[in-house]
Design brief:
Number of strands of chain A: 11
Low-confidence stretches of chain B: none
Largest sheet of chain B: 6 strands, mixed
Number of helices of chain A: 0
Structural class of chain A: mainly beta
Order of helices and strands of chain A: EEEEEEEEEEE
Order of helices and strands of chain B: EEEEEEEEEEE
Strand content of chain B: over 45%
Strand content of chain A: over 45%
Number of strands of chain B: 11
Low-confidence stretches of chain A: none
Oligomer: heterodimer
Helix content of chain B: under 10%
Radius of gyration of chain B: 13 Å
Shape of chain B: globular
Distance between the termini of chain B: 38 Å
Largest sheet of chain A: 7 strands, mixed
Chain lengths: 115, 112
């Protein structure tokens, strides 16, 4: 099993619908992150959480919300999806300050299309 | 303002030659730098890192050079192989409780 699992892998949804992307990890890491990738824009941080009671906005949090249900689970919600939220979404985990061991572990991504 | 810049969106190199991917940064407080590689339909994976107290770190075919005075780092791949074709992201850490800052990525194509 993958260390960081994202579900679903692909999703097509209609404008205005609510959608949840889920992320679970077996790394035992405290820190979890949600990024989106768009062509030419790289990886942009949406939300991050350093422990279960800690939630922080990233650079592009508008239109998104998150829930940290447990140390191992971090969900991203789009309350009312719009077409410009069409992107590839990545969940990542990390241990605090363990950059020498590679920093983040990413999931395989969720490709979301809003029509 | 973009703190980590990868100014070349793409790079094409012949197999066996050297690939050099560049990354510039503006925040002098960054104290750790990482490179990630991403294949299509997969998440990014860690490639190599360097602390700001060093100027070079080598791992097999991959070497990262850091020039703090120029706020510039580069990733060298020698020799380049077709399997190296991927998007490469440069990332930097300012320390403390802050997430990594990523560049926009450079797509490397290694031509056989």
């Amino acid at each position: 099993d993958a260390d960081v699992t994202q579900t679903p892998r692909n999703r097509i949804t209609k404008t205005g619908k609510r959608i949840m992307l889920e992320c679970s990890q077996t790394k035992g890491h405290d820190r979890m992150y949600w990024y989106r990738q768009d062509p030419g824009l790289g990886l942009r941080l949406i939300y991050y959480s350093f422990d279960v009671k800690d939630i922080n906005k990233g650079e592009i949090s508008d239109g998104y919300s998150v829930s940290r249900q447990a140390q191992a689970k971090f969900s991203l919600s789009l309350e009312s999806a719009i077409p410009n939220q069409t992107a590839l979404y990545f969940c990542a985990t990390s241990d605090s300050g363990q950059w020498a061991s590679g920093g983040y572990t990413f999931g395989s991504g969720t490709r979301l299309t809003v029509v | 303002d973009q703190q980590v810049k990868q100014n070349s969106p793409s790079l094409s190199v012949q197999e066996g030659r050297i690939s050099i991917l560049n990354c510039d940064y503006t925040n002098s407080m960054f104290d750790y730098f990482l490179w990630y590689k991403k294949y299509p339909a997969e998440g990014p994976t860690f490639l190599i890192s360097i602390s700001s107290i060093k100027d070079k770190n080598e791992d097999g075919r991959f070497t990262v050079f850091l020039n703090k005075s120029a706020k510039h780092l580069s990733l060298h791949i020698v020799p380049s192989q077709p399997g190296d074709s991927a998007v490469y992201f440069c990332a930097a850490d300012v320390g403390g409780n802050t997430p990594l800052v990523f560049g926009k990525g450079t797509r490397l194509s290694v031509i056989a």
